[in-house]
Amino acid sequence: MMTGLYIHVPLCEKRCRYCDFYKLTPDETDGMELFLQCLEIELRRLPKDFAPDTVFIGGGTPTALTPSEYGKMLEAIDRRINLAQVVEFTSEANPGTLTPDKLKVMRDGGINRVSIGVQSFHPRALQLLGRIHDADQAVQGYHMLRDAGFDNVNIDLIQSIPGMKPEDVLKDAQNVAKLEPDHISFYNLIYEPGTPLTKARDEGLVVPPGDDEEADNYFMVKEYLECAGYGHYEISNFSRRGRECLHNVLYWQGGEYFGCGPSGASHWHGKRFCNIPDLDVYTERLLKERDPFNEVEYLSKEEKARETLVMWLRLTDGFDLAEFKKVTGFSAYDLCGKGIDSMIEESLLQRTENRLRLTREALFISDAVFSELL
Ligand code: SF4
Question: Do 120 and 172 meet the contact criterion of CB atoms below 8 Å apart?
Answer without folding.
Answer: yes
